[in-house]
Amino acid sequence: MKTIRPSRSRVAAVGVLATGALFLAGCGAANEGGSGSTGSSGSAAAPVSGTISGAGASTQQAATQAWVAGFNGANPDATINYDPSGSGAGRTQFIAGGVDWAGSDAYIKGDELTKANTRCGGSIVEVPVYISPIAVVYNLPGVDNLQLSPSTLAKIFDKKITTWNDPAIAADNPGVNLPSTPVTTVNRSDKSGTTQNFTDYLKGAGGADWPHDVSDTWPVQGGEAAQGTSGVVGAVKAGQGTIGYADESQAQGLGQAKIKVGGTFVAPSAAGAAKLVETSERVQDGGASAFAYKLNRTTTDASAYPVTLVSYAIACSKYTDAAKGNLVKAYLNYVISADGQTAAQKAAGNAPLSDALRQQISPAISAIATA
Amino acid sequence: MSAPTTTPPPAPAAPTTSTKPVQQAGDRIFKGAATGAGVLILVVLAGVAAFLVAQAIPAFAASAEQLPGGKNIVAYIGPLIFGTLLSAVIALLIATPLGVCVALFITHYAPRRVAQGLGYVVDLLAAVPSIVYGLWGVAVLAPAALPFMGWLERWFGWLPFFAGPVSATGRTMLVVGVTLAVMILPIITAVSREVFLQTPKLHEEAALALGATRWEMIRMAVLPFGRSGIVSGAMLGLGRALGETMAVAIILSGSGIVTFNLISSSNPSSIAANIALQFPDSTGVAVNVLIASGLVLFVITLLVNSLARYIVNRRAEFSGAN
Predict the structure, then answer these.
(1) B177 touches chain A (CB under 8 A)
(2) Strands of the A147-148 sheet, one edge to the other
(3) Is residue B3 part of a domain?
(4) Do B69 and A87 touch (CB under 8 A)?
(5) How far apart are CA B87 and CA B83, in angstroms?
(6) How many domains does chain B have?
C-alpha cells in the first residue's frame, strides 16, 4: 500500500486506483513484455520493491496519485509516499535528507543547489515531470474570442485597467464590441505554483507594466481572491466581467483568452506548453543531470504558449542505499515515460512531455547510481 | 445515629458510630478521576498556550524582510485581526436579536407541539458541518445577495459600509457575516431558550395579573431575568464566529487590507481562514508567522470569554432571579 499523508479520503482514492491498476496489470501482464512502452525503456525492467518518500509541490499531487497507482501496477511491492507540503518545504526536506526526492514548481538554485549537492554527495538530478498550460479565463457575455497582449494582461491584473472597453483591450481586439462592464480580477487566495508561474510570466513578458515581484502569493491587494483552482474557476463563472488564471485542464466551459506571442494570438494548449519547454534555455548550474529551464516568457514562436507551469522532480545522482536508489530510478523513469505521462494527463489534465524532451532527460535518470 | 447500641442493626446500610464520612474505594476513585479531568483541561490549555508562544517567538524576532510580503508582523496580522472582529461583529449583530426572538417564540408564543419541533430544528442547525455552510454561502447565498447588495450601494452608498463597488461574485464580508450569523444562531437560541424557560412563573403571572399584555410581560419579567443568559449565549456565539475557519476561507475574497466596505471584492481576511489557506505551502518563518497569528486569535478568544463571564457574574445580581 501507498499513502499520501494529508487526507484519508485521498489515501482511499489512491487505494482504489491502485487496486484498479493491479487488476489491469494482472489482465495485461501477458502483453507487457512484447508490446513494450513507447519512449523510455526503464518501465519494463524487473520489478523493484522497497519504500521511498517524496515531498513538495501540491501541483503534482493529482498526477502523483496516478503515477503511484500506475507504478504499483508493475511493482506491487514498492511503496511510494508523496507529501504535497509545498515546493519550498519539499526542497528543504530534500536538502535535510528527510525525503528521497522532491517535487518543486521552481528549479533549485543558488544556496539551495549547493546544499542539495552536498546532501547528495555529488550532483543532483532534476527533470521536468509536470507541464501544464495556465489559461487566462474570463466571463464576459457577448465576447467569445478575447485576445490580450502581455502588457494589457499585466495592466488588467495590476488593476490599472478597470473597465472592459479600455482602449488597451480594444486595441488587442479590433472590431469587437466591448461592454463597459467593470473588470474583476480573480486570483488565488492560497499559496500556489500556478500563481508563481503566472506572476513570472507577467514579470517576464509584461515588463514595466508589471511592477510586482514573482511570488507564490498574489502580490496585488484588493482583487477577488478564491481558494484553489476550483475556487478561481467558480468565482470567474459566478461573476460578470471577471478574469482569472487557472490550469487549462480545469478551465473547461469558460472563455479562454488568446495571448499575444510575437505577432499572433495563441490559445493555451498542451502542445504549446511542451513546445515552450523545448525551446527554452536550459540552466546548467546544477550540472549535466539537472534539466532546469529558464522559461522563455517572451518567446516569439507562435507554436509555443508562454503562460506555462513547469514542475520538477529533484533527486540525487547517486544513493548509498541501493534499494532506494533503484526505486527512485525506476519510479522517475516511469513518471517521464509515455505511459506515466498519459496516466497523469488522464488524472490531472497536464501536457505530456514531448518525445524529444523525454529523450533528452531520460539518460539523466537512467544514470542514477547506487553505491 | 448518635444513640450507641451494641446490637447490629438489621438494615444493610448500617450507620457506623464514627462521625467521619465513609470513604469507600469507589469514592476515592471517582474523586481522583474528577480531579484528574479538571487538571487535564488546565494542562491541555497550558500546553496549547506554550506551543503557540514557543512557535510564535521566531516570527516576532524575525526582521521585516524575512516575513511574507516583506511587511513587519504587526502590519501582517493587524488586518487579519480587523477582519476577524468585523466578520464576528456582523454575525453577532444579526444573530443576537434573531436568536432571542426565536427563543421567545419557542418559550412563550408557539403551541407546545410546534415549540418542541422548532427547538429540535434549531438544534439541528448546530449539527451542520461548517464546510457545508461554506459551500452553501458561496454557491447559494453569495449570488442571491448580489441584487440586495446593489440596492444597498444605490441607496446607502453614502455610508462607508456600503460604498461599493459591488463585488461581481457576491463573495463579500456581508455574506460571510450572514453565513456566520446562521452558524451561531443555534447557540444563542439554545442558551436563551433555557434561561427564558426558567423565568419564575410567579413573576410572569404577577405581570399578567397587573394587566400587562403578553409583550409587556415579556419585557418586564422574562427579558430582565434572562439578560445574563442572552449575554452569555451571544458571547459563546461570538467565540465560534471568531474561530470559524472553513466557511470564511471558502466564501470570503480576502486580502491583507483594512476597510469597512462590506460589499466590495476587497475584504480583510480572518485569522483562522488565513491560516487554513496559507499553511499548506508555507515553510520556515512563514509558518511561525501563521502560528503567531493563531496566538493572537487564542488571546482574543480568551478575552471574549472572560468578558462574557464577567458580564454574566455582574448581571446575575440584578437579574430579578433573587
Answers:
(1) no
(2) A147-148, A258-261, A264-266
(3) no
(4) no
(5) 6
(6) 1
Residues of B in Cβ contact (< 8 Å) with A191 = 277-278, 280-282
Q: Does residue B183 sit within a domain?
A: yes
Q: Tens digit of pLDDT for each residue in A39-86? A: 334 444 577 888 899 998 888 888 899 999 999 988 888 899 998 888
- E-strand spans in chain B? 254-255, 267-268
pLDDT digits (tens, 9 = 90+) for B234-293: 988 998 899 888 899 989 888 888 888 888 888 888 999 989 888 877 777 888 899 999
List the single residue in B249, B266, B278 with the smallest CB-CB distance to A222.
B266
B225 HSE (CA, 13 A, CB side) = 21
ipTM: 0.71
- Check if A333 contacts B (Cβ < 8 Å): no
Residue whose entry in the numeric block shows the C-alpha cell 444562531 = B185
Residue B163 inside a domain? The answer is yes
DSSP A285-312: TT-TTB-EEE--TT---TT--SSEEEEE
* Torsional class of A50: left (φ above 0), alpha (ψ -120 to 50), beta (otherwise): left
Q: How far apart are CA A258 and CA A133, in angstroms?
A: 12
| B2's grid cell | 448518635
**Residue bearing cell 521536468:** A128
Quick one: pLDDT at residue A22? 41
B-chain residue closest to A241, CA distance: B168
Strand pairing category for A255-256 and A124-139 = antiparallel
What pLDDT is recorded for position B95?
95
Q: Which domain holds residue B250?
A: 39-59+67-98+129-188+226-316
DSSP states along B45-88:
HHHHHHHHHHHHHHHHHS-GGGSGGG--HHHHHHHHHHHHHHHH
Q: What is the pLDDT of residue A356?
A: 84
Inter-chain CB proximity B281 and A189 less than 8 Å: no
Spatial contact of A221 and A205, defined as CB atoms under 8 Å apart: no
Of A87, A221, A239, the CB nearest to B255: A221
Between B311 and B153, the higher pLDDT residue: B153
Tell me chain A's radius of gyration from C-alpha atoms: 21
The residue of B65, B169, B172 whose CB has the most chain A CBs within 10 angstroms, and thus the best one to mutate to test that interface, is B169
Q: Which residues in A lie closer than 8 A to residue B250 (C-beta atoms)?
A: 227, 231
**Which of A227, A233, A260 minimizes the C-alpha distance to A246?**
A233
* Confidence at B8, pLDDT banded by 50, 70, 90: low
Does a structural domain hold residue B278?
yes
Mutate to test the interface with B, among A87, A188, A190, A243 (most CBs of B within 10 A): A190
Residue A266 predicted with pLDDT over 50: yes
The verdict on pTM exceeding 0.80 is no
Residue A47 carries which side chain, given as an amino acid letter? P
